[in-house]
Design brief:
The chain is an alpha/beta fold and 301 residues long. It has 11 helices and 18 strands. The strands form 4 sheets. Strands 6-5-4-3-2-1-18 form a 7-stranded mixed sheet. The longest helix is centred in the C-terminal third of the chain and has 11 residues.
């Protein structure tokens, strides 16, 4: 059974609070798991959320500030301790190679897992599989940072009434799907295009072309909203977004489900982020993320 959901492990920016751990997000995409930005405490949050080391196939780090990467050391040692049987691939800005190496070998441990390092050197495709394409886009932050996007290939949705009208049923349906034509009937005659799902992960950044490219047409956009709109000058100075800015991006990009996260500890009312996002005109599904919550990707339209 395919499962596509976001498991939120932590939602704090810069420093954790009593109610928010440092960043950490596990995306379940059918049989694969993508761990994004494992901040300090991620290993314990995984335990609390029911996420196992075996669930991780790729680790994607947006940049090497501590709240997005200090948990790497513990996570890497945990996958080795649990002897995860499959290869794990790590993506991160190439300019932070020395940080990755320090975190990977922060202390002594026995390596049992194949951990492939695939640093990001610029905009482009990082991986292409039958289930998705993973690509990265440069963001605007004081240190080099990238956002990530998964795109599922488009497929076909069979229409039962049209199949019946053409007398096609049973094993012939599968044959038509494989071969594209059957007894003069084509796939176009009995099906319609099914748009592949799209997911984007955007952390610390000002507004820039990369933000819009990642968000375009997404079914789910996970995006930082460190500041409220009244602190927009602080956001720009420190390379961050406000709730209203993030929501306007989502509105203009046609996002279906917006997940706001990475909140400054200066704010006590999470509901204000939702109010400002709605005031910015976003009308789709909206989640103000909280630690240990799960958010399912929207059903295909």
């Amino acid at each position: 059974m395919s499962v596509r959901e976001l498991v939120v492990l932590g939602t704090a920016s810069q420093v954790p609070t009593r109610h928010r751990n440092h960043n950490g997000y596990l995306l379940r995409w059918d049989g694969e798991g993508f761990l994004f930005d494992p901040g300090e405490g991620t290993q314990r949050q995984m335990l609390r959320a029911g996420v196992a080391a075996h669930d991780i196939n790729r680790v994607c780090v947006t940049h090497f500030h501590g709240d997005h990467s200090l948990g790497l050391a513990g996570v890497i040692q945990r996958v080795n301790l649990d002897q995860v049987p499959h290869r794990i691939t790590a993506h991160y800005p190439a300019s932070g190679q020395h940080f990755f190496e320090r975190l990977r070998y922060a202390t002594a441990y026995r390596e049992t897992v194949e951990l492939a390092e695939e640093p990001v050197t610029g905009d482009g495709i990082l991986a292409r599989t039958p289930a998705y394409t993973l690509d990265a886009r440069l963001l605007s932050h004081p240190v080099e940072a990238y956002g990530y996007r998964l795109t599922e290939p488009d497929g076909r949705r069979m229409i039962p009434a049209l199949l019946a009208a053409h007398g096609i049923g049973g094993p012939d349906v599968g044959r038509l799907q494989r071969e594209g034509t059957l007894n003069g009937v084509t796939l176009d005659d009995v099906s319609e295009r099914r748009r592949g799902q799209r997911f984007a992960f955007v952390m610390d950044t000002r507004l820039c072309d990369g933000v819009y490219a990642l968000a375009e047409g997404c079914d789910m956009l996970v995006i930082e909203s460190t500041f409220l709109d009244e602190d927009v000058r602080l956001a720009t100075d420190h390379g961050h977004l406000t709730a209203g800015q993030a929501a306007r991006v989502a509105r203009e990009a046609g996002v279906r489900h917006l997940v706001l996260t990475h909140f400054s500890q200066r704010y006590g009312d999470p509901g204000e982020f939702e109010r400002q996002a709605r005031a910015a005109g976003f009308e789709g599904e909206l989640t103000v993320a909280a630690d240990l919550t799960r958010v399912s990707l929207p059903k295909r339209s």
